[in-house]
Amino acid sequence: MSNFLAKRLLFSASVLFALSLFVFLLFYIAPGDPARVIAGDKATELQLVQIRSNLGLDRPIYEQYLQFVGKALQGDLGFSYRSQQPVAKLIVTRIPATVSLVIGGVIFWLLIGIPIGIMSARDPGGWRDRLGQTIILVGLSFPTFVLGMLSLYVFYFLPRQAGFTLFPPGGYAPFLKDPLIWAWHLVLPWTTLALVTAAIYARLTRGNLLQVMGEDYIRTARAKGLSERAVLLRHGLRSTLTPLVTQLGADIAFLLGGAIVIEQIYGLQGVGALAVQAVQNQDRPIIIGVVMLGGLFIVITNIVVDLLYAVLDPRIRH
Amino acid sequence: MPVLEVRNLTINLPTEDGIVQAARDVSFEVEQGEFFGIAGESGSGKSVLTQAIMGLLPNAEMTGEIRFQGVDLLTRTPSQIREIRGAKIGMIFQDPLSSLNPYYTIGSQITEMIHTHERVSRLVAKRRAIEMLERVGISNAASRFDSYPHQFSGGMRQRVMIAMAVVLGPPLLIADEPTTALDVTVQQQIISLINEMRRERGTTVVMITHDLALLASVADHVMVMYAGQRMEIGRSEALFAEPAHPYTAGLLKSSPAHYTPGSALVPIPGRPPSLIDLPAGCAFRARCADAREPCTRSPPLRLFDDGTQSLCWLEAAPQREMPAQPTITVPADTEKTHIRPARVIEALDVRLTYHFGGFFKASHSLDVLKGIDLELYKGETLGLVGESGCGKSTFARVLAGLIPATSGSVTFEGHDLSTLTHRQWREMRKRVQLVFQDPFGSLNPRRRVSSIIGEPLRIHGIGSGSDRKRAVQGLMETVGLNPEHYNRFPAEFSGGQRQRIGIARALALHPELIIFDEPVSALDVSIQAQVLNLMRQLQTDLNLTYLFISHDLAVVRHVCDHIAVMKNGRIVELADAESIYTNPQDPYTRELIAASFHEPRGGTTGKRRLVTAHAEGIA
Fold this sequence. Notes:
By secondary structure, chain A is mainly α. Helix content of chain A is about 75%, strand content about 0%. Chain A has helices at about 1-30, 35-40, 45-55, 60-75, 85-120, 125-140, 145-160, 180-210, 215-225, 230-255, 260-265, 270-280, 285-310.
């Protein structure tokens, strides 16, 4: 096991290196002068030269890259061109909002998706299956921003017009200050995220359950005299956990790198919102920082998912 | 009162293609403590019958009666039947790997059975499960309680299944092909174990199998099914000594376990009819050698004075001579010594070692092949026999050049495989072909037969368009497939036909050597003989060299000149086929031989007489 972990960590590190090199080269090739972005349109040529020299932009690309890597390994991702704040600190302040959104979203979409999948698989072709399939189809075809706007209109705007506040229009309240206020702010983002994502999980659960229910060991379970409910939940659902975990790992990793649309709609100051601002401002250090953070999350969740496989599937364990 | 009494059971299964008549007017009785065998080919309706008894056919339309301990199960509610399942009727299935849930420990799967039907504490359940595991021969049962199914061998898994099925002491145990997925040496152990359970606990056993010969040594009564109908039923001794129905006789003759030297296996030609569209008259007519004019009408039920019943127009048992000589004569030994045929392949001290781990942890290695010498001459068939895991398939892949040997050399037609250039290697690939075990898994289900058989031609750029089509159709003809089925998909063929497709593909490039890796072990015995006879026919016609891998000595004996017995990566005995049987040297060879041949229980019942014939037959 430790051998496996060491290999995975080594591989992950090389993935991150490759990613950093790629992003760095991309910006080197891309048009646009960072010095001009920082100094503004009215800056003199002298000022631009000074800025380039300060940031080391006048040095050869490999030197710039090595310097970046060296500092990044110490947790220093450079400074924002716009605000002059350290990038690492900027990102860290954004993480709680994003993590809060993702954790609640995951719980909500699992609670919606898996039961719908089970319901569908219990009688394939029947009315419950068709209802489940319809929900899945609607969920899959609804764009996030439409659902987000709609929920804001129904749960914030309409009550406001009627004279009371049902839910806040957005923003983030720290968990440690007051968990209730925290949750109150996040209910709408959570449900929106959950509704658009749950469909994938419902479909995954349904498909895998239907496949598993044809297995020989399900026949054995029935031959034991177990109730159909026990057969489905204990023997059927157990083996759908592995594909669910795979999907979950990919989704969580992706969202932790920034749930861009949802954060924008609900004004959540998360990593995704930071990335959007950085792109608008051509703030390279932040963009690189966010990309590296996203890469880090993906690499970590992949390792976690692999370890979970071993927990979930005794055949993979040694 | 019989434990199980089935009366005029008819099962219709509605499917998209039409109504499958899985059973028609089947009746039988199983007495307390009896070992009752049900035999028939795949698709004869025997497994559906057991599922009907267990109430596992929710969509079936059933008429008749299934009386278990006097109660008609067809009139019970689903929850009443659930109480019977497991507690009163235990079941053992064919494939012990897929029949055990891979995610739970074997212990928890057995205790689940106990908890489902009895209110006992976890500790009591665990103790009972461990006792049961010990009883079925799992050593260190207490420590193996928390092991998972994949940590056991096939035979051990089947023991676990048996422990699970009998832990609640059910009066009836149904075993559906319990040994088909196992090595021959293990098969006998499992059947003996089931038999012991029956004796010890007074359990009644119903065992289903496609290999009638397996039942010879254990069954009290045997029922033979075909196309959903009961063809013959009777006492075991009578049925094996003097089968009354031509189908029973055919099943017995096709079993390699009943091989006598100098005779050919006699397959039952053709295959079972579709249960959706059954022919009028006798269902077996199309494949029956004794078929005559009255067989177009429904056959009468004949009752003989020894209790045997047969659904056939014949009034006495079919009496036909077994062909005295194989249809294909092997060249006499004298010729062989004069003209030594060319050596096709030679293996010298072939070793193969797999290495694991490394990097951070101490590595360990596994010796799969431990120094094998082998020679194979043109036109010869060499059998390579051993249990699963002995390395025989791996060795075949080394010989085919698909896995490089760790040390030692393999020489094919004078070229050392390890020194071949890319071009030579491609050339060699044409000359050596493989046919695999599972005709269901080894053919791509999404490609037409034409492109499967023609693929070797395409890869090696031989012919094109209509030339290639003609070549493929010629190959189909050679292996006994209808060339008009050129555009069909593998799913439209039966198991035996699929194996013919695999053979046609192997023949496409006119190879020198064909390696057959368990070519018939996934097939019914009645069909096995067809394929084996085809292989022999092709060998004489095309002067091919064969390497035949199998776990079953009886099968190998039928086709091989020489036999090599393999155990743990070594060849323990190598001799010509008959002397291996008549004079086995290695104890392991003797063990294998004992496992492959089941002598029927002795004593014929003498000439039987016809008592009655119910002429009404079956509607």
